[in-house]
Amino acid sequence: MPLHPVLAAVTGRIVERSRPYRAAYLHQLSESVTRGVHRSTLSCTNLAHGFAAFPQNDKLVLKQQKLPSIAIVSAYNDMLSAHQPYYRFPDIIREAVRHAGGVAQFAGGTPAMCDGITQGQPGMELSLFSRDTIAMSAGIALSHNMFDAAVYLGICDKIVPGLLIGALHFGHLPAVFIPSGPMTTGMSNSEKSRIRQLYAQGRIDRDALLEAESKSYHDAGTCTFYGTANSNQMLMEVMGLHLPGSAFVTPNTPLRDALTAQAARRAVEISLQGGAFTPVGRLVDEKTIANAIVALLTTGGSTNHTIHLVAIARAAGIVIDWNDFNDLSTVVPLLTRIYPNGEADVNHFHAAGGTGFVIRELLDAGLLHDDVTTILGQGLRAHCSEPFLEGENVVWRDSPDTSADENVLRPAERPFAPDGGLRLLTGNLGRAVIKISAVKPQHHLVEAPAIVFNSQEDFMHAYQDGKLNRDFVAVVRFQGPKANGMPELHALTPALGSLQDAGYRVALVTDGRMSGASGKVPAAIHVSPEVLANGPLGRVRDGDLIRLDAEAGTLQALVDEAEWQRRPQAAADLSSNMIGMGRELFAMFRATAGAAEEGAASFGLPHLMTPASTEINQPKGDAEPFSDEDTNVQQSIQAHP
């Protein structure tokens, strides 16, 4: 199947837009390889420090400087269910690498915070910036110049993006990402959602809610809904950074351990000494990033990746924006129904055919680039497979030709929807994204008076006081990265869902984020520029008529233009967000954070700092789509609806 013209056109404009920055990045990568990440560049004192505590046989390998040394960078902690299984992985990796002819060292740990624990709490205001902290932590782990490749242990929300950003800043090193897998299925996601709404309505008490939540989150592994954590795993597979089919194999099973060992051996093979040298900075290219966007769209993945993928791409000298997501969404079909876009969880999805089925369907439809580099070195079609154990060895077999359950997973010719359900909204309120794959068509357009809130706590107080039993658009402002770190506003979901179920026309408009599990209520999120960057959301007043039209792609305050321009920005009192729960430690991140559409990164990318880069670093504000470079894309969309 030839490449779909819209995918070809979007990828082409990404290449053109990124050309000077990608060239600078690749030049830096080549220089690093030429200089050598070789232990021979270290002094004898340096090297002796580096292996002082190593077992004697491993020390001999490092002294010879001829065999690969693999770094283990891990986000292990035993509070996060998804990361708790990683405590066993370093020993498995070390042994596998020894048998492959190298050595492995635990190079460093990174933070790993759980959004599920911090939702609605002050600690959530550290969450987005934990991604950049993780990237810097990975950089520290690799800074010793001891390693020839690295394996990365991470799964959840900001953790995988942070690890990958860190890896790309050491893009001359090969990288293999190793998941730990999802927990087994507990209480159904639909029942969990129903109970949360009952609690929000005051119809059940906290003990009943905690009992239900404990039945949902009950064991080691990722949460089983399709939020940011599991979206991460899907993207790592499609980007070719995982072994095929490894994302959703449950923890503490023989297959999981065998996959971990095989991934470690593959890291040896793709090192410079291993004969199949594959630096991650060349693996992640413009086509790989385009593939990741497609994978996100076709599975109804987390809206958080409209931020994270931008930051990941920039770390590799690649510039993408929300126009790219929007245009691809018009032609990428929705192939999965995983909660919150359906009833099933990721275990059900995996059993129905999983990642290999999705990749093959998209390749056959011309909606993925096959001619990319992966850790297998065989193009993306090699990832249309699933792993099995034969004795103690992993073997891969072709993914099934048919879905085992078309209520969960469908072929491209019979999708759940013809598009990916992610839309760009533009208008006098700025630029925003909305995910409508779980929003019923009758809620795609909401026009109602605004009620303005300065925090999600203000919203919840109004809800609990019975003041929101009417049609309205909740405008929740001062939630951007510069204001308070852009916490997810997940606490609003049950209340808004309950009001919508009661028959009210409701929507959310915010410069903040929603959970990766955002669902049935229309939500225009990541509104850019944020209010603290002089964004127009700060001009909205109670009673203004707001029109959110997901079909037309518009987000408007229906206010007289002269009146709109006269209005001053709302004053911000952010004193309550500055101190407490460690927030004062992150003041520098808030001060330097970029716009959401630019990845909300809190540090610069020196290898991109060419004279032309200034235009990338400016907020787009009310800007229209990039008409010159989008012309061929729009023509393709019209010709291939």
How do the strands and helices of this protein lay out in sequence?
Elements (H helix, E strand, L loop, with lengths): L4 H31 L8 H8 L4 H9 L4 E6 L14 H11 L3 E7 L5 H4 L8 H16 L6 E5 L5 H10 L6 E4 L10 H12 L5 H11 L11 H11 L15 H16 L10 H4 L2 H13 L6 H11 L6 H8 L16 H7 L1 H11 L20 E6 L2 E6 L23 E6 L2 E6 L9 E9 L2 H9 L7 E5 L4 H4 L7 H10 L4 E5 L12 E6 L16 E5 L4 E4 L3 H6 L20 H6 L34 H13 L2
Parallel strand pairs: 1-2, 1-3, 3-4, 9-10, 10-11, 11-12
Antiparallel strand pairs: 5-6, 7-8, 8-12, 9-13, 13-14
Helix pairs in contact: 1-23, 4-11, 6-7, 7-14, 8-9, 8-20, 10-13, 13-15
List keywords for this structure.
Glucose Oxidase, domain 1, 641 residues, alpha/beta, 3 domains, eight-stranded mixed β-sheet, 23 helices, globular
Percentage of residues in helical conformation: 25-40%
For the biggest sheet, the summary is: 8 strands, mixed
The dominant shape is globular
Major β-sheet strand ordering: 7-8-12-11-10-9-13-14
Low-confidence region ranges = 609-631
N-end to C-end Cα span: 17 Å
The chain-level mean pLDDT equals 89
Strand runs, count: 14
Overview of this protein structure:
- This protein is α/β, with parallel strands linked by helices.
- It has helices at 5-35, 44-51, 56-64, 89-99, 115-118, 127-142, 159-168, 189-200, 206-216, 228-238, 254-269, 280-283, 286-298, 305-315, 322-329, 346-352, 354-364, 456-464, 481-484, 492-501, 561-566, 587-592, 627-639, and strands at residues 69-74, 103-109, 149-153, 175-178, 385-390, 393-398, 422-427, 430-435, 445-453, 472-476, 506-510, 523-528, 545-549, 554-557.
- It folds into three domains: 5-184 and 221-398, no CATH class; 185-218, no CATH class; 422-576, 3-Layer(bba) Sandwich (Glucose Oxidase, domain 1).
- It is 38% helix and 12% strand.
- The chain has an eight-stranded mixed sheet with strand order 7-8-12-11-10-9-13-14.
- A hairpin with a 4-residue loop joins strand 13 and strand 14.
- The two termini are 17 Å apart.
- Keywords: 4Fe-4S, Carbohydrate metabolism, Gluconate utilization, Iron, Iron-sulfur, Lyase, Metal-binding.
- Pathway: Carbohydrate metabolism; Entner-Doudoroff pathway.
